Amino acid sequence: MLALERLADGVASPAAESLRDRVVLVTGATGGLGRATALAAAAAGATLVLLGRKVRALEGVYDEIEKSGALTPALYPMDLAGATPKDYADLAAAVMRECGRLDGIVHAAAQFDTLQPFEQQTPEEWNRTQQVNVTAPFLLTQACLPLLRRADDAAIVFVFDDVARIGNAFWGGYGVAKHALLGLASIVHEETESSSVRTHAILPGPMRTALRRAAYYGEDTLAHPDPAHAARAIAWLLGAGASGVRGKVLDLRG
Predict the structure, then answer these.
(1) 3-204+231-252 sits in which CATH class?
(2) From the CB of residue 55, how many other CB atoms can be counted at a distance below 10 Å?
(3) 7 pLDDT above the threshold of 70
(4) What is the C-alpha separation between 35 and 50, in angstroms, rounded?
(5) Per-residue pLDDT for 170 more than 80?
(6) Which residue of 72, 197, 210, 235 could cross-link 192, Cys pair, CB 3.0 to 4.6 Å?
């Protein structure tokens, strides 16, 4: 089981070049946290594979990274809601063919529609939410694990939500999915604990993201910090410096 850990502010930040010579795959790379994570990992020297649903949005993140002077990322458009096991196998093969290695995965993609009574959630909404939030991390990790095991040190980073909050009324399929993701991450950790593959997770605090706006209609989302702080923590977890906190959930809720 993953253990919760809170580090002093500023401890979980990547050193310059700490991800040099590492290839990192970021899902949801055009979303609030995914984009910020891509920028933070690029700044730390990583070669990135950016996975997202919309090509033009991916190209926007590509341009930001390229303008920063970091290593040129690779783009991999994929709709996680409809992806099949073969799609993930093809992705793993493409990463190996084009990059020659894989040293980290960040599961930053998330699917959340709105708060609503579970009686009103359609089967299509339910299935899409489970597919993106749980099934995609399972299939992607499974497909890429052989690549990760080749590395001397590799990391898988899951993004959690506060289960005490999302287990309440109206969180529907998203709440169920995030509870299931905690179980999946714990199992992956237990099964890789003695290997070169580290399993981590983060529990961000409120962030200035589209998901936050969708869940809290009357709130001034701009009052919250942007996702850069959480992104720096993720970039730190991807590096060798975080080996001492493998199997931990980094609590960033302040």
Answers:
(1) alpha beta
(2) 11
(3) no
(4) 9
(5) yes
(6) 197
Strand ranges inside 27-72, DSSP E: 47-52
Residue in 112, 87, 91, 64 with CA at minimum distance from that of residue 213? 112
Q: What pLDDT is recorded for position 218?
A: 74
Q: Crossing angle, helix 32-43 and helix 55-67, to 10 degrees?
A: 30
Active-site positions read 174
Please tell me the total number of residues recorded for the chain in this structure.
254
Cα 244 to Cα 34: distance, rounded to the nearest angstrom: 24
Give the residue-averaged pLDDT of 158-167. Answer: 91
Q: Report yes or no: 123 and 173 within 8 Å, Cβ to Cβ.
A: no
Token match 């898988």: residue?
Answer: 156
For residues 153 and 147, give the distance between their C-alpha atoms in angstroms, rounded to a whole number.
Answer: 11
Mean pLDDT in residue range 86-102: 98
- pLDDT bin (cut points 50, 70, 90) of residue 198 is very high
- Whole-angstrom Cα distance, residue 109 to residue 217? 21
- On whether the CB atoms of residues 43 and 17 are closer than 8 A, the answer is no
Quote the CA–CA distance of 252 and 250 in Å, as a whole number: 6
Q: Is 74 in a helix, a strand, or coil?
A: strand
